[in-house]
Amino acid sequence: MENNKSFLWPEGILIALLALGGVFSLAFMMLLRPNASEAQIRQNIDVKDIAANVGTQQRIEKLKAAMLTSWQQEAQTKGLSYAVPSRFQGAIIEEAKLTQGQKVIALTFDDGPWPDTTEQVLNILKSNNIKGTFFVVGQNLKNFPEIGKKIVTEGHVIANHTWHHWYHFFNQQAAAYEIDRTTDLIYQITGAKTNLFRPPGGMLHNGLSAYAKGQKYAVIMWSADSTDYKLPAVPKLINNVIKDSKPGGIVLMHDGGGNRSRTVQALPEIISNLRKQGYRFVTIPELLEIEDADQKLLVNKKQ
User: Fold this and answer.
1) Over residues 271-299, mean pLDDT
2) Rounded to whole angstroms, how far apart are CA atoms 102 and 111?
3) What is the pTM of this model?
4) How far apart are CA 105 and CA 254, in angstroms?
5) What is the pLDDT of residues 18-72, one digit of tens each?
6) Catalytic residue among 156, 161, 165, 254
7) CA–CA separation, 174 vs 163, rounded Å?
């Protein structure tokens, strides 16, 4: 019996050692496996992060589109309007007549919307916290409606510059087509109602302005001409604006109708120069409101 016990004892130890070795092997394998799992998890997280970022961007774009649609519908329902005081309806305006010395001036841009250029002008105005007035050509607005929407959604004023930008004589029916069709499209696309009109080339005697005045549009001309349509050198373009700028002035520039890269180059310097002179930038409706208030104050002082 003793011999059997002495034989079984080492065998038990051997079995125990084998079992212990198995435990250590299993533990060692488990220590290795989490590393592989961690890499797998990290890879899965990276993929999920990328998918989440893409999904977030898509949701942002959808939200922006929904907000724009909602804003446009609300604007059309309420009728966003750039109404001007009655004294200016049916009148021709080259500048605001101010007696209080307010250093305000209006930057205006013609012939857009135009690919690239209009957006560059909008970005410059936005970075300088300035609102401008854009006289759009109907057929350009039809071709680039999103740019037209951007003009309005960024707080600028959109106005009528005829459908074709033609210079010849118009009878009343043709003038109505040029002006009414453009105004209707402005409202259809942006929700804005405008009674601001600028005749192409500033021509006042070819039937367009007569029709506009009869329809109670304010016919907006200018007091400072950049002549950017003649493509002058940038310093000349800047000087053209600065030399004729004055309180209550209206500056003529172009964001469309051709190569307007020089206007884009000149605009920041024009803004900087006028600001150094103490000017504040306003839209055409704001400018006319200031003149109206100024004239009323003058009348009250006389009484």
Assistant:
1) 94
2) 29
3) 0.75
4) 17
5) 444 444 444 444 444 444 445 454 555 555 555 556 677 777 767 755 665 555 4
6) 254
7) 11
Looking up tokens 């009343």 gives 172
Render pLDDT for 181-230 as a digit per residue (tens, 0 to 9): 999 999 999 999 999 999 999 999 999 999 999 999 999 999 999 999 99
Of residues 107, 131, 92, the one with CA closest to residue 253: 107
pLDDT band at 99 (very low <50, low <70, confident <90, very high): confident
**Amino acid, res. 68:** L
The residue among 78 and 193 whose pLDDT is bigger is 193
- Evaluated on CA atoms 147, 167, 86, 285, the torsion sign reads positive
Separation CA 160–CA 188 (nearest Å): 13
**Given 110, 111, 228, 294, the catalytic residue:** 110
Contact 135, 220 (CB under 8 A): yes
* All residues at 6 or more sequence positions from 194 whose CB lies less than 8 Å from its CB, including other chains: 81, 82, 157, 158, 159, 160, 183, 186
Helix axes 172-190, 145-153, angle to 10 degrees: 70
156 as an active site residue: the answer is no
Q: From CA 53, how far away is CA 124, in angstroms rounded?
A: 30
In whole angstroms, what is the distance from residue 77 CA to residue 117 CA? 31
Return d(Cα 78, Cα 80) in angstroms, integer. 6
Give yes or no for a contact between 125 and 151, defined as CB atoms under 8 angstroms apart. Answer: no
What are the Cα distances from residue 172, in Å, to 68, 129, 138, 206? 36, 40, 18, 10
* Tokens 């212990």, located at residue: 20
Maximum CA extent, the chain: 138
Element at 197 (helix H, strand E): strand 196-197
165 is catalytic: no
